[in-house]
Amino acid sequence: MSEEAMVAFRRYIESKDELKGLDYEFDELLHQCFHVEHYLKTFHHFNFTVKTKKPGSADWTSAMYFAQVKSICMIKRYVCYPLEQDQYGECYACENHGMGELRHPLEGIYDMGREDIQFPFYYQDSDSDEFDATTGGSESSDEDMS
């Protein structure tokens, strides 16, 4: 998955004249969240760090970035933004997936999901190890089904 985040990062630095010629290397994938709203709307959010070094410098610095990889009809669209300290933009999709720690930019163009769409897969804890698709995982008798 870090390859997708780095594609977004490379496209980001290619679009910025002040970053051309910068040495960089992937550092760490911190968080990720994959969201499917429907067949034609899927996206993947990433938080990751990249080490960078200015030309002629011996010092490497690490910075955190947000990236989105969005698939539309088998075509991938990439966005990437640097994240500042304590920057927590809103994203219903990641929050609904329980990924509240994944950070988002305060401004920018990225999919946030919808507040009313919840993650479609769930598991209800029970004493049984078997999953019953008709009840969403809970045990029930034939009498309960009527």
From TrEMBL:
Ranges where the DUF3615 domain occurs: 6-105
InterPro entries reported for this sequence: DUF3615
Region ranges (Disordered): 125-146
Coiled coil location: none
A Pfam family: DUF3615
Domain of life: Eukaryota
Protein name: DUF3615 domain-containing protein
